[in-house]
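Appendix C. Worked example: ARM10 protein
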Amino acid sequence: MADDASVAPSPCKMKVLLGLLAGAGATYGIYKLVTASRNRANQSRNIDGVNEHCSGKDESRKAVLPGSLLEKVFEFSSIRGRDVRTGDGSSREILSKTPGKLDPQHLEMLLSLLQSNPDTSERMQILVTLGNSAAFSVNQDFIREMGGLKIIGNLLSDPVIGIRVQALNALNNLSLNAKNQEQLKEYIPKVLEMIEISAVNSDIQLAALRLLTNLSVTNDYHHMMRNSITLFLSLLVVGNEGLQAPASLVLLFDSGTITAVLCRVLTFVGNLKNWTPSTPTKEALKRSKDSLYSVLFGDSSQLPSKLSPLLCHPDTEVTVQVARLFT
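Step 2, the predicted output written as structure tokens:
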């Protein structure tokens, strides 16, 4: 019994032990509270940092500078949602592309720039690019479907001569398409007016004549140009050598000429012969040795001697056209 009593702890020692245990538990609880509070603060700072970083990205997106790398990255995804800026890097990049490598979205952007860009030199360059791209038939269709014919056609009334010239050049290439011609025919009266009021041999007059040449390939729109035949003939009289007929033209009236070409030439000359100018005009045309009328119908013309052998041509249409010229 004495031994058992000596082993059992005294009440005083038990109180001390319990106090130590309680102190340790309280200390651990305080540690957990402090640690949890610190973790929450760190997480809050991390979230704020992420939000600030994302907000910074949005702000940088809004502050994209023209010609910067970010603009090139976001260029086509945001093209419909942003105002097109003049002289930005993306437009310059497109204008520098090879015409055959322009995609539909490039053409659409150029047409948009053409309407919104106030810079004359850039608009002229855009028209040149569109005109060059129209040398490819697939682009002729794309530009028509995007409403480009009307956009370019409206520029025929632009106050800047250079813009009108480049618009004519672009429409010239776009007119090599039957469906495009159906829409472009509405501009024939305007083009004829430009030819009449423009200075002889000027860039704008020659560009307008080239466009009419393409629009007159078929006879669908000849009736719209009929009243301007006198105007065209007058250009042959007063124009420079680039608009005049060489004397060698009569060499085409030969049995060795390709039949299809010969028929076209004979038909043209027959229509010209049926034109009845006033006597003063006829005499003035004959006196002008370099004019088409003088080469074909002047007193010294070699045409009659070239036509006679063609009456024996094996092609019936040729002989019919020759006989028409002799009547």
